[in-house]
């Protein structure tokens, strides 16, 4: 009798190890949590090793479990790539492509591109997850992650998709009532609509145009803070205050002049240094035809000078 672990048990174990949760693994594979627990218990019995420490609020790997996880994950990744390359050889990319992107950028600039890609490759399924949290694609099982802003040190592959340009702007009605600041110091006397995300309240940064010096930080204040950039832009459109965001978010309002740029003698930024938009993915995804197809499509649609900066 063959006592080798089942492929499902190995996949369940890897998912639990990645997320630290039996419930999340059960949700991911559409199984009852009790079934996940039984499969992993059977796996531990077959191996004669305890792989996981189970606690009320968390699950973590034992030393043996950590070693086993690294080896098994690599094997499963290679198996997935092998299956994809064989099955997609004649019909093009197929299978499930998991993409993670920030909420506003993903909704505006990633989601609209997918219909054409899937029309070209009808056997390609896509799972698009929009989140402003910084995720590790290896831990979350994503094939491709779009990152806006600073990159954390990582062994992942990163390709720059586009630069970012920032503008401070306000609605004509706000400027008519309150005037436009001539210098960033004067923002202290204006109502600034401020983004507050997972890293806290976002300061604003300015420097003289084309100046070599570093950006100067301004801790602006106002009567509205939010963790959704589009809601702050909407408030600005209603004349409530001033916002500072990149052109990929503001370009329609700037083009239609429903928001007007201010402080144009200064270069603006939402970070201490101007950071671009990057695509990141694990190195082994370079051999994936579905990742390659998506990246080619993405870079064809968003050029070195992206359409939102035209």
UniProtKB/TrEMBL annotation:
This is LysR family transcriptional regulator. PROSITE patterns: HTH_LYSR (PS50931). It comes from Pseudomonas neustonica. InterPro entries: LysR-type_TF_proteobact-type, LysR_HTH_N, LysR_subst-bd, WH-like_DNA-bd_sf, WH_DNA-bd_sf. Belongs to the LysR transcriptional regulatory family. Keywords: DNA-binding, Transcription, Transcription regulation. Residues 5-62 form the HTH lysR-type domain.
């Amino acid at each position: 009798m063959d006592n080798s672990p089942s492929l499902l048990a190995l996949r369940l174990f890897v998912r639990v190890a990645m997320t630290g949760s039996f419930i999340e693994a059960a949700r991911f594979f559409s199984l009852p949590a009790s079934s996940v627990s039984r499969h992993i218990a059977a796996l531990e019995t077959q191996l004669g090793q305890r792989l996981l420490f189970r606690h009320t609020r968390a699950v973590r790997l034992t030393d043996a479990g950590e070693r086993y996880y690294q080896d098994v994950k690599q094997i499963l990744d290679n198996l997935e790539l092998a299956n994809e390359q064989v099955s997609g050889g004649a019909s093009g990319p197929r299978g499930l492509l998991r993409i993670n992107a920030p909420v506003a950028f993903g909704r505006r600039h990633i989601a609209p591109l997918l219909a054409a890609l899937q029309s070209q490759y009808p056997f390609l399924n896509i799972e698009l997850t929009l989140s402003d949290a910084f995720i590790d694609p290896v831990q979350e099982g994503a094939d491709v992650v779009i990152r806006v802003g600073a990159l954390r040190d990582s062994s992942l592959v990163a390709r720059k998709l586009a630069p970012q340009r920032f503008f401070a702007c306000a609605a004509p009605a706000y400027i008519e009532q309150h005037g436009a600041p001539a210098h960033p110091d004067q923002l202290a006397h204006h109502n600034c609509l401020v983004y507050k995300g997972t890293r806290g309240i976002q300061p604003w940064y300015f420097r003289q145009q084309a100046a070599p010096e570093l950006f100067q930080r301004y801790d602006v204040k106002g009567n509205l803070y939010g963790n959704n950039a589009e809601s702050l832009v909407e408030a600005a459109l209603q004349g409530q205050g001033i916002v500072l965001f990149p052109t990929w978010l503001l370009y329609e309002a700037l083009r239609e002049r429903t928001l007007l740029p201010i402080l144009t003698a200064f270069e603006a930024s939402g970070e201490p240094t101007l950071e671009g938009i990057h695509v990141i993915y694990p190195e082994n995804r370079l051999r994936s035809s579905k990742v390659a197809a998506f990246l080619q499509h993405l870079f064809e649609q968003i050029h070195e000078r992206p359409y939102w900066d035209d």
